[in-house]
Amino acid sequence: MVRQPSQTVTEALSNRAAVTSVDYRCLSQEDVVEAGGLDMDACLEVIAQTLTLHHLGDTLSPPKAVVHWGPEIDADEKLGRIMAMPAYVGGATRMAGLKWIPSVPENPSRGLPRGIGVILLSDPETGLPVAFMDGTVVSAMRTGAVSGVAARELARPGARRLGLLGAGVQARTQLMALERTLPALEEIRVFDIDAAKAARLASERGGGATRLVVATPEEAVRGADVVVPATMAPEPFIPADWIEAGALVLSVSSLDVRTDVIQAADLVVADDVAHETAHRSRLLARAEAAGVLDRDTVVPLGAIVAGEHPGRTAAEQIVVVSPVGLGIEDLAWATYVFRRAEQLDVGRKQRLWDEPVWR
Known about the structure:
Layout: H1 9-14, E1 22-27, H2 29-34, H3 40-56, E2 59-60, E3 65-68, H4 75-78, E4 81-89, E5 95-103, E6 118-122, E7 129-134, H5 136-154, E8 161-165, H6 169-181, E9 187-191, H7 195-203, E10 210-213, H8 217-221, E11 226-229, E12 248-250, H9 260-264, E13 267-270, H10 273-277, H11 283-289, E14 299-300, H12 301-305, E15 319-321, H13 327-344, E16 348-353
Parallel strand pairs: 1-7, 8-9, 8-11, 9-10, 11-12, 12-15, 13-14, 13-15
Antiparallel strand pairs: 1-16, 2-4, 3-4, 4-5, 5-6, 6-7
Helix pairs in contact: 3-5, 3-13, 5-6, 5-13
């Protein structure tokens, strides 16, 4: 379970005659890692709990505000974007906050991550900030964990072969999660347009599955029990006839999967269909625009995790999951890390004010 801090900001304030100085905790990326930000087992648990809370209505997840640098459908892949993702999560998390995350495709050539996020956490009772922290690790980890939770629920029993398209940061966290939630996994086929990048990922230590570099996307996909596209491709390139009967497709990136895969699917799942279809480059938005998707048939992942929908009902079914990524997922994992940092006294305190100018 997500641990509560020993004393919330609200409790601390209620025990004082008057508000004077207010501090919040600052966490660098190194601090986030020290406080458990790379603990995928804990992240999987937190994300499963959060998806359940979302399905039960104990979250608030307003639409993302997005700065697009161009009007074309592939502008995000070519030019980048900035997203602001506000959220509130109830339950044991009980936190509000915001993730601000630019995505800059040229950054890796500069020696920088493509996605660079920061997260602000606020006490929902007082509105006071409790943490300002690196969000790059948090964002990548929760993305992997959502796929891991989906695979645990929806991969066919005994899934042995994984096709991974892309060998960047997202591919790493996808592997971290999937190697934990696919216990029969034997073979991981890695494709990237940069063969050297694929080779580096394939050579890294992982679970017990064999990692192979393949020369084409089709080699990665055909015969795979689980397919994970995680690229910045500017146009769709994975057709339905590559998909094996019984496969699980985890459509992490936006444009990789063609809409005929939706037509071939027996079950379509999203973390939130309204958020997914609000982004025109996303798979389900494109499928809806093409007239091949009825959004009312899309099953919430949280309903499956909560046990209110059976999910896969036959081994030969093709299941497609398109997780757009939600601010509640970032917020919940960031809160876990922040509370661990509080317990370990990781990071540093920053003064917001000594005395408020106005009350």
